[in-house]
Amino acid sequence: MGFRVLELFSGIGGMHYAFKYAQLEGEIVAALDVNTVANSVYSYNYGSDIVKTRNIQSLSAKEVAKLRPNMLLMSPPCQPHTRQGLQKDTADKRSDALTHLCGLIPECQDLQYILMENVKGFESSQARSMFIGAIEKAGFHWREFILTPTQFGVPNTRHRYYCIARTVKDFSFAGGKIWEDMPGTKAQDPTLSQISQILEENVSADFLVPDNVLTKRVLVMDIIHPEQSRSMCFTKGYTHYTEGTGSAFTPLAEAESHRIFELVKKIDESTQETEKPEEVLQQRLELLHQVKLRYFTPREVARLMSFPEDFNFPEETTNRQKYRLLGNSINVKVVGELIKLLTTK
Questions:
Q1: pLDDT of 132 higher than 80
Q2: 233 carries an active-site annotation
Q3: Which of 17, 50, 128, 222 registers the highest number of CB atoms within 10 A of its CB?
Q4: Residue 93, pLDDT score
Q5: CA-angle at 230, arms to 37 and 260, nearest 5°
């Protein structure tokens, strides 16, 4: 019998793509999420039959039993555990769904496999202790990881917590620790793809970093060049906030952009007044324009998150919505490799 997968907090279908990546026999029996915009993207790619706009807290053991899932894939809200948030943990209302599931899992008799993804920091939370207690009560063997796509050849940093669990047989590698690499692999990173390999051609000028951001924030931006093999974690605030939300791209070689930024710094050092003369501001801005700095497009961000080329957004989805949805999603390749590990006998 093939796998019958229940996908919770399904978003734009990252777990579904990861299951396909793992090339296992089976089907997604239901995908549940409260976000209607995310659900419209999921439906656009996979049809509307399995997608349901649902509050997870209302899911009952009886409903789960009707679906007969033997695999649960989920990425619960990370906001209660993020470094930038209040870190209210289980006291945060956004943790209520996971709390509900922890009560539900021991009642789901058909369930044999679980994969859960969350933000780095979850590993030291009360929610994690509650979750591990629930799966142990249900008879699961479990292992924990903190992994990033760069370990899988993807030039993007996105450290995330993962837990894989199964009832069928214990894993062949040790528990009692958080793995920071894949069991059986060498510690060194694989060869990383260059950023140039994920770029779109003829990108619209709409993606150029606007002048007000160039003027005030450019020197704190993480700027990536074509020959580099890295990028920052993209968050839901990408393009809306400047710092810590993701990298920007310049087509210039690193030495050339560095030369331009040094000229900009010289202007800044030579004119320390609070208000620079208009002609100085214009000269500074013209220099910054030479860098041709732009945001990564939603397609490029999707590629860095290992979504396949046949993944698309409905026409009505705005770029702001695309970035928010991608920022809340998972890296398909990392999760796909963990699904393989989860189901290896």
A1: yes
A2: no
A3: 17
A4: 63
A5: 105
CA dihedral defined by 15, 17, 18, 22, rounded to 10 degrees?
140
User: Would you state the structure tokens that stand for residue 80, as one six-digit string?
Assistant: 């209660």
What are the backbone angles phi and psi of residue 65, rounded to the nearest 5°?
-60, -35
The pLDDT-based confidence of 95 (bands split at 50, 70, 90) is: confident
Provide the pairing of β-strand 248-249 with 294-295: antiparallel
Average pLDDT in the 316-334 region?
97
The length of the chain is 345
224-240 per-residue burial string, b: 16 or more CB within 10 A, e: under 16: bbeebbebbbbbbbbbe
**Of the listed 78, 102, 108, 163, which one is catalytic?**
78
CA distance linking residue 275 with residue 297, whole number of Å: 34
- What pLDDT is attached to residue 13? 98
Give yes or no for residue 90 having a pLDDT over 80.
no
State the pLDDT at residue 284. 93
Prediction pTM value: 0.93
